[in-house]
Design a protein that fits this description.
Layout (H helix, E strand, L loop, with lengths): L6 H11 L8 E8 L11 H6 L2 H4 L10 E8 L3 H9 L5 E5 H13 L4 E10 L6 E5 L14 E4 L4 H12 L9 E4 L2 H9 L5 E4 L3 H7 L3 E6 L7 E8 H6 L1 H20 L1 H12 L3 H8 L6 E2 L5 H16 L9 H4 L3 H9 L4 H6 L24 E5 L6 E3 L2 H13 L4 E7 L6 E3 L4 E7 L6 E6 L2 H11 L2 E3 L1 H14 L2
Helix pairs in contact: 4-5, 5-13, 10-11, 10-15, 11-12, 17-19
Length: about 475
């Protein structure tokens, strides 16, 4: 059902269940979360820890005498969450696009119904999924993995990314590589012990494993340019009986999103404290110009990601039931929640902008203009990251900070071709010639060696490592007239 919701529409849904149904009763609201799937934290972890849902639950009208029993249950992946929702143990759940589709299919197959009520995050280009190899592997690109073993959580968005990437190379996924199913935690262990040649995974593991030092990212999902998303799925029974509570929950999601946007560093520290995902990696996904965009609106690309998930899962014979995706998606609840929260849904629906990295260069005072050249440094002991207009300026700043004895938690740059945010010490750089006398050379950051070679060939310059680029930048800043 695709329609704009007005208040009377919610009321009409409530009347179906009976106006007095919630009076003098204890209403269970059971919510399934995935705390380590950090693109869903504003639908679970943040709401739970800040007790935001309690603020939005109604206590008037038919809910005047109702009390609420809020049950939170955390999962490390989508399948067990889906199983508990199908069994009637959960009312709402935060899921990626592939598990969301499996949720809808399994409910339909069982003669039940679930409803996709809101998006949580998306990447219209597929960023967020990636392929990593052991840190000491000689592999520099996907084509170096022909004949090798690659693990991936089967039936996930990362699985679909891997299959597309392999087919883009003209390979047969059943003959040219060996693909095995491994959950993220098993994939990480297998990388450390060199039991596999590569691992493909979803948020946040393609960044988390490199940050922790035992893996190196060689491929980003944005290369296949297939949209990916996360969202909220609700039990059909719960939607029918308590439509106002679905809206209240989504109002809490919107408030959590705003809280993260106002202070992403603080939010990253909270996620680390609760879920154990390093704050620096959380910030990659929730800070300005993030890898994916938090967005509650159900964009056409979100719908496309869900259709793609159904097609892929059907091809993999992991979805064997009917699902009308258009009818399964119901945007009325998030539209009402947006209206109640003062969010212009239509404007946000048309916008694809992530949180900007604005202001001025922390070292030079120059305005930050080009997001693909921007960089950030999170200095140990500081609450906020420092922003820089260029990679060169950030690398010079690193030298100055080191001279003062300051330690850095992380340095972040952006891929010059795609704009994807990167861990600076894990990627390649192209150091060009100075643009003008007295000006430092431009330094471009690229995820892979192949991309760096292409950039150098097209634009000139020398391909080098993070440490070498840092040294070149510092030398240039000292010697320039």
């Amino acid at each position: 059902m695709r329609s704009t919701l007005v208040a009377s529409s919610i009321a009409a849904l409530a009347l179906v269940a009976g106006v007095s149904s919630a009076r003098a009763e204890t209403i269970r609201i059971a919510i399934g979360t995935q705390d380590t799937t950090i693109n869903t934290v504003h639908a679970g972890l943040v709401i739970r820890e800040l007790k935001l849902l309690e603020k939005h639950l109604p206590h008037t009208g038919k809910y005047k005498d109702a009390t609420y029993d809020i049950v939170w249950k955390n999962f490390t992946s989508g399948p067990p969450l889906n199983g508990e929702m199908l069994a009637g143990k959960l009312d709402l759940g935060a899921l990626g696009d592939f598990p969301s589709i499996l949720n809808g299919v399994s409910h339909a197959k069982a003669g039940k119904r679930s409803v996709y009520v809101a998006a949580l995050s998306n990447s219209v280009h597929g960023a967020g999924n990636g392929i990593v190899v052991p840190v000491d592997s000689p592999v520099q690109s996907l084509r170096d993995l022909k004949g090798k073993t690659i693990s991936v959580p089967f039936g996930s968005a990362a699985h679909a990314m891997l299959l597309r990437a392999i087919r883009d190379l003209g390979w047969d996924p059943e003959r040219d590589v060996q693909i095995v199913s491994q959950a993220p935690e098993i994939g990480g262990t297998s990388l450390k012990s060199h039991k596999i040649d590569a691992h493909a995974d979803f948020v946040p593991f393609a960044e988390l494993f490199p940050f922790r030092g035992f893996a190196r990212k060689i491929y980003d999902g944005s290369t296949v340019k297939a949209p990916t998303s996360h969202g909220v799925v609700a039990s059909g029974d719960f939607v029918d009986r308590y439509p106002e509570l679905v809206v209240a929950y989504l109002e809490a999601v919107i408030e959590a999103d705003r809280w993260i946007a106002a202070d992403p560093e603080r939010a990253a520290e909270l996620v680390y404290k609760v879920a154990g995902v390093d704050a620096e990696v959380v910030y990659l996904f929730h800070g300005p110009l993030a890898i994916q965009t938090r967005d509650v609106t159900i964009k056409p690309e979100v719908e496309k990601s869900l259709h793609t998930a159904l097609e892929t899962l059907t091809l993999l014979k992991r979805a064997d039931g009917p699902l009308d995706v258009e009818r399964w998606i119901d945007d009325r609840f998030i539209r009402q929640a947006a209206r109640n929260s003062g969010l212009d849904y239509e404007t946000r629906l048309k916008s694809y902008a992530s949180v900007p990295l604005g202001g001025k260069d922390a070292r030079t005072g120059d305005p930050i203009v080009d997001p693909k050249q921007a960089a950030e440094i999170w200095v140990a002991g500081e609450a906020k990251t420092r922003h820089y207009a260029t990679v060169a300026s950030a690398l010079v700043a690193l030298g100055e900070l080191a001279a003062k004895g300051a330690k850095t938690r992380v340095v972040l740059v952006h891929d010059r071709e795609t704009g994807i945010k990167l861990l600076a010490d894990k990627v390649w750089f192209v150091v060009g010639a100075p643009a003008a006398k007295g000006k430092p050379a431009e330094i471009a950051a690229l995820l892979t060696r192949d991309a760096a070679d292409r950039w150098a060939k097209a634009h000139g310059g020398t391909v080098t490592t993070f440490d070498a680029a840092r040294g070149r930048a510092v030398t240039a800043s000292v010697t320039r007239p």
